[in-house]
Amino acid sequence: MPELSWGAASDTGRVRSNNEDNLFVSDGLFVVADGMGGHRGGEVASQIAVAALRANFSDQTVDGLIEAVRRANDAVFSHATDDPDLRGMGTTLVALAPIDEDDDTALAVVNVGDSRMYLFRDGELERVTEDHSLVEEMVRDGRISPDEALTHPRRNIVTRALGIDDNVEVDGYPVVPYKGDRFVLCSDGLYDEVDDARIAATLRRFADPGEAANELVRLANDSGGHDNISVIVVDVVDDGGRAEGASKALARDRRTTTSASSPDLAGFTAEAPARPAGAARVEPESRPEPEPPRPRRLTWRVAVFVLVLLVVLAGAAGAIGWYARKSFHVGFDGDQVTIFKGRQGGLLWFDPTVVERTGIARADVPPARLRQLEDGNEVASLDEARRYVANLQDQIDALDPPTTTTTTTTPTASSTSSGATTTAAPPP
Ligand code: MG
Fold this sequence. Notes:
By secondary structure, the protein is of the alpha+beta class. The chain is 34% helix and 23% strand. It contains eleven helices and 16 strands. The chain has helices at 41-56, 62-82, 134-140, 146-151, 188-191, 196-205, 209-222, 247-260, 300-325, 367-375, 382-399, and strands at residues 3-11, 21-26, 29-36, 90-98, 107-112, 116-121, 124-127, 171-175, 182-186, 229-238, 328-333, 336-341, 353-361, 377-379, 414-417, 420-423. It has a five-stranded antiparallel sheet with strand order 1-10-9-6-7. A five-stranded antiparallel sheet has the order 2-3-4-5-8. The chain has a four-stranded antiparallel sheet with strand order 13-12-11-14. Helix 1 runs antiparallel to helix 2 (62-82) and helix 6 packs antiparallel against helix 7. The chain starts with a strand and ends in a 5-residue tail after the last strand. It binds magnesium ion. Magnesium ion binds next to helix 5.
């Protein structure tokens, strides 16, 4: 088993009249419990839980520690049921204990509620436990940000606690410690007042675990001390040679950990514990294995978004179509003057369509009009298009009267009449 040294501190804080936290330290078990319940309830619940845990922790395995927590739950629940004054009391609990594993250097961690354990390793602080609290669930669901959780008015509501029900879900898993590791067990009275950066800075400054624990409690009080504050600092003094010359093994373990544990536990070596017989409600496996991403589902929000998008796209297409097709133009279809509906050249996928063929050939069009018709003479209406064609026909007729009677005598002569140029055809 690893050689450990530790220090602990607990304080009522600056606001509460009594300390409902309870802690226990020995070389075989470290516990922080944060009681809740009116009158004396919280104080009693945390005391009963710690005492029952100590009494029932005999099988030094992860499963043994989980089972002891469930016996502690039984004890608090039965007291709460039997004594009307204590009805509704409960307590959180986080515990760390050396256990008999194959390599005999492992520790076991259990928690229920929002008391926490941190690991300080290589100068970095990582949270080991997951809070069973309303705000943490809201953060996981994406309803609030981690920063909002820090000041959320309902941040002290826990979703799991000992003594509330005759059964309890317990998170439990082993930790492989390395020399130099520092574990911090604490109630929410610490982390509600002192952020992770200040906790880490304190652990860097104070090498002695007792001094570090006292300083953390002092910082929490200086920040307001709104709740009871309990802190245990456990240092790994000797790991049986695990860390010595084991940088390669450490790197390998960390790679294993990174792929086999939750993001919170990066750099923290944990193994998935076996589920104890009959422990249907214990969820240790959920911690080492990150949850697979949930498949995307078509929610009503997505459906409404898609529907609105389709309506907008249909409206835009309709507007473009209306704009492209609202006018007419007179141009050439092949070599024939033609009235088209729509803009010359079309717009996007709206091509102009033939409305009327006029029977006027390109060769008959006066040169002055050719360019205009090549470009497509745009008009507002079909009537206007027809008037344009009639005018064109008049111009052509004036140039080359349909009677074909030659009225001039000079083949090259030309004259202007009524604004139209008349050119004589050569004599036969
Ligand atoms: Mg508290």
